[in-house]
């Protein structure tokens, strides 16, 4: 092999040196580039990157505000807040654990809190993600610990706090939840309402509306005044920024925006009166269930009831009770599926349904004062005399008086006093024969139907509570609409041969309904005149209408709230009564009906329950009712009023009006005015300042009310 020459060696050396120079130049240029880049990052844009790094180590945590209080008219607390231990899980830390460690931690949490493992897992899923369950998933910030158990025992919280190595990423802290002090032992569940976590749709709507008062961790009102005045009660959340390390552990507080507590809602409810009303309603139902129906030989079912006290001249709600009811505490900390099923259960009486505003019942004879107003405005007079016979034949059916009683020819006042059905049957039949004998004419004139609508029946009263039922006026249009909606069903039954599962009654009814179910017959008209048939009202509608008799015709929108007061004690809003309508009747008609209802209390169907009551000092007007319902026992009603208040009680399937509800009505009146035996003691009145009138109204010969005499010097 030939050895390289000296020239070749020199050329090779020069090439090697050149390569080294190139490499050195390349390394120097790279170092120069890095130095320039480092200078740019640290000096030129250093502040920007520092801020970005800081933002990655700071998290915003929502600080929920204390919800506002709800108090009665005397300032007694009805709903407050208390502290409760809440167990939460930091999903950031949990996500950095291995699968096995994660399962162990969640198993420990499930065991110590008593919650199921699957339930804990559901609560950790962000709403909208795969596997999320509405009402259970987490709507809040992904950086905020997720509550998995609320209102846990103190020992459970301490165990978690004392053993952090066994519960990494698990927090136990105190938060505020709703509390119910129950002054005088009141329940008031349907009026107050309850809270539950905000839904994803509600949160989206709030975001689009720019509403900053709610966030993913908020609880919002779902019923009662909690829902109606939620925007005032909820307050404004605060925000706390905390520094965390690379593992998500909190290192310290960075900054904080204080939360603003919710406002206090002052109501017109009086806890002392509410307590008496609730207890009387419950006792009345209990007594009715132990009483035998003389017609059927069975005990009364008394499956539900309601009682209401209103201010006659403002429409404010003083007390409102419904049965069956429930414990409002059941919603605190989250309600179980079993508890929720019970609240909706028909077997349990559907406790979540507030009968005072959502229950709808035939009014029975409590309807007759409004039919009297309609008759006196449409051709009849206070001197009209009609036969109160034991029965009235309409078509091929006898419509009977209660227990077939008969009083001969009487006027409207006596008919109200003894609650004569056949008297009012004759009025309803007369109008039907005059204006509506064409059974298919949906536009036929009907003075009694129009009068009922004028008194606000068949429409919501406008009370400041959600979910109010409108009741129903079963007039010609309603019957036509009902026929159109149901004719296919009943015609489907009648057009086929009768089978073993269809009773003779159902088959016969289906055939008749299919042919002429739209017809508004004389029987419908006479039933309407005494508050029977398909017409239904809510107890609140009836109470509001009796309030209009008491105050001379003003239909108020009932109000529970009186004012909203800020955390600093400043009145932010006064909630005044609002007028929904006026009943246009002559003063003498109001006076005539008023005196007739006073007669019901003095010597009529309510009198045996008011023996010994000081009616001369505390005049009470009343009307009893026993509404018959097909397939059920009769509904007991008593509607009553003074110049100050309206008191109404209803017990479904409870028997007669005064027989069942009369004693409770008397007790409520005694409470309101401080009646002790036969004496009135104003100092014992439930509401301070409630005193009997100083002068009884004076009635002229035509039934109108004279104004009170003016004192000397009055103008």
TrEMBL record:
Entry-linked Pfam families: PBP_dimer, Transpeptidase
Domain Penicillin-binding protein transpeptidase, chain residue ranges per copy: 305-668
TM spans (from-to): 20-40
Record family assignment: Belongs to the transpeptidase family.
Ranges for domain Penicillin-binding protein dimerisation: 63-253
Cellular location(s): Cell membrane; Membrane
Main location: membrane
Keyword Ligase recorded: no
GO cellular component terms attached to this protein's record: plasma membrane
Parts forming coiled coils: none
The organism of origin for this protein: Nocardioides dokdonensis FR1436
Membrane topology summary: Single-pass membrane protein
Sequence segments annotated as region (Disordered): 686-715
GO biological process: cell wall organization; peptidoglycan biosynthetic process; proteolysis; regulation of cell shape
GO molecular function (one): penicillin binding
Keywords for this protein: Cell inner membrane, Cell membrane, Cell shape, Cell wall biogenesis/degradation, Hydrolase, Membrane, Peptidoglycan synthesis, Protease, Transmembrane, Transmembrane helix
Gene that encodes the chain: spoVD
Protein name as catalogued: Stage V sporulation protein D
């Amino acid at each position: 092999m030939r050895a390289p020459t000296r020239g070749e060696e020199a050329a090779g050396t020069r090439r090697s040196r050149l390569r080294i120079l190139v490499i050195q130049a390349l390394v120097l240029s790279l170092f120069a580039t890095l130095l320039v880049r480092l200078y740019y990052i640290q000096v030129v844009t250093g502040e920007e990157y520092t801020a970005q790094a800081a933002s990655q180590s700071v998290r915003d945590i929502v600080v929920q505000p204390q919800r506002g209080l709800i108090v009665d008219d005397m300032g007694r607390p009805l709903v407050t807040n208390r502290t409760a231990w809440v167990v939460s899980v930091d999903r950031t830390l949990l996500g950095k654990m291995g699968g096995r460690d994660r399962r162990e931690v969640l198993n420990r949490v499930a065991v110590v809190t008593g919650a199921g493992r699957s339930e804990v897992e559901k609560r950790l899923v962000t709403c909208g993600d795969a596997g999320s369950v509405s009402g259970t998933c987490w709507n809040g910030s992904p950086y905020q610990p997720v509550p998995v158990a609320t209102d846990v025992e103190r020992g459970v919280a301490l165990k978690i706090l004392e053993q952090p190595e066994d519960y990494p990423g698990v927090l136990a802290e105190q938060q505020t939840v709703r509390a119910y002090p129950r002054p005088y032992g009141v329940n008031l569940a349907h009026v107050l309402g309850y809270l539950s976590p905000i839904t994803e749709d509600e949160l989206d709507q709030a975001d689009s509306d720019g509403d900053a008062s709610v966030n993913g961790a908020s609880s919002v009102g779902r019923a009662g005044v909690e829902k109606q005045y939620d925007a005032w009660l909820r307050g404004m959340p605060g925000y706390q920024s905390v520094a965390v390390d690379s593992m998500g552990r909190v290192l310290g507080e960075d900054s904080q925006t204080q939360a603003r507590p919710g406002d206090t809602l002052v109501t017109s409810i009086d806890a002392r009166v509410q307590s008496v009303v609730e207890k009387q309603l419950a006792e009345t139902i209990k007594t009715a269930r132990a009483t035998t129906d003389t017609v059927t030989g069975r005990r009364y079912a008394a499956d539900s009831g309601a009682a209401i006290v209103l201010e006659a001249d403002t429409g404010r709600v003083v007390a409102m009770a419904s049965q069956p009811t429930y414990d409002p505490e059941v919603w605190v900390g989250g309600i179980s599926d079993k508890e929720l099923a019970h609240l909706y259960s028909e077997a349990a009486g559907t406790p979540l349904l507030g009968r005072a505003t959502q229950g709808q019942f035939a009014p029975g004879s409590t309807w007759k004062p409004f039919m009297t107003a309609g008759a006196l405005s449409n051709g009849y007079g206070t001197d009209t005399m009609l036969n109160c016979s034991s029965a009235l034949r309409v078509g091929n059916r006898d419509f009977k008086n209660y227990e077939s009683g008969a009083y001969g020819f009487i006027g409207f006042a006596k008919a109200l006093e003894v609650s004569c059905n056949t008297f009012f049957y004759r009025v309803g039949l007369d109008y039907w024969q005059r204006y509506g004998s064409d059974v298919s004419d949906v536009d036929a004139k009907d003075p009694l139907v129009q009068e009922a609508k004028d008194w606000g029946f068949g429409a919501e009263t406008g009370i400041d509570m959600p979910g109010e039922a409108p009741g129903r006026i079963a007039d010609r249009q309603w019957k036509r609409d009902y026929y159109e909606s149901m004719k296919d069903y009943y015609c489907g039954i009648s057009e086929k041969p009768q089978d073993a599962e269809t009773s003779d009654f159902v088959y016969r009814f289906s055939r008749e309904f299919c042919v002429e179910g739209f017809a508004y017959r004389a029987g419908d008209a006479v039933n309407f005149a005494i508050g029977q048939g398909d017409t239904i009202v809510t107890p609140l509608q009836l109470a509001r209408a009796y309030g209009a008799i008491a105050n001379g015709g003003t239909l108020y929108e009932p109000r529970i709230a009186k004012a909203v007061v800020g955390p600093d004690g400043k009145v932010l809003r006064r909630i005044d009564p609002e007028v929904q309508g006026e009943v246009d009747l002559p003063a003498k008609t109001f006076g005539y009906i008023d005196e007739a209802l006073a007669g019901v209390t003095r010597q009529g169907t309510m009198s045996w329950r008011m023996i010994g009551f000081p009616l001369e000092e505390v005049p009470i007007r009343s009307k009893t009712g026993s509404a018959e319902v097909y397939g059920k026992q009769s509904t007991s009603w008593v509607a009553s009023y003074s110049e100050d208040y309206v008191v109404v009680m209803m017990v479904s399937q409870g028997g007669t009006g005064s027989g069942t509800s009369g004693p409770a009505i008397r007790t409520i009146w005694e409470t309101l005015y401080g009646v002790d035996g036969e004496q009135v003691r104003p100092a014992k009145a439930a509401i301070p300042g409630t005193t009997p009138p100083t002068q009884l109204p004076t009635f002229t010969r035509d039934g109108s009310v004279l104004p009170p005499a003016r004192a000397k010097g009055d103008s």
